[in-house]
Structures are given as structure tokens and as C-alpha cells.
Task: inverse folding
């Protein structure tokens, strides 16, 4: 399941995961698409570098 399990449709009042109306189905399709995002590796590396810099300055 996932994020859509807790969402309620404003059009029909049902759960989006049940896909009872066209709005639910469109929202569910959009939620299931692979959304582009930043990879976790570079973000973790940047956070580690920032932490090390903070520790070095303290």
C-alpha cells in the first residue's frame, strides 16, 4: 500500500486507495508514478561533510 492508503478523496469522500471515482484513479496513478528526486547517497555525503565541518570548528 503506501501513502495513498490514508488519503481521502475530496470528490467522492472515499479512500483514494479504493479508486471509486475518476479523481481517485487519477490521484492514485499520479502517486504511483516514479517521481524524480535526488539520490540519497550525495545527500548523506553532504550532511556528513557539514557535520564534520561543524565539529572541526567547535
Result:
Amino acid at each position: 500500500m503506501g501513502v495513498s492508503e490514508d488519503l481521502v478523496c475530496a470528490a467522492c469522500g472515499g479512500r483514494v486507495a479504493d479508486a471509486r471515482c475518476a479523481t481517485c484513479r487519477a490521484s492514485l496513478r499520479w502517486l504511483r508514478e516514479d517521481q524524480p528526486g535526488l539520490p540519497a547517497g550525495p545527500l548523506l555525503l553532504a550532511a556528513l561533510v557539514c557535520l564534520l565541518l561543524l565539529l572541526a570548528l567547535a
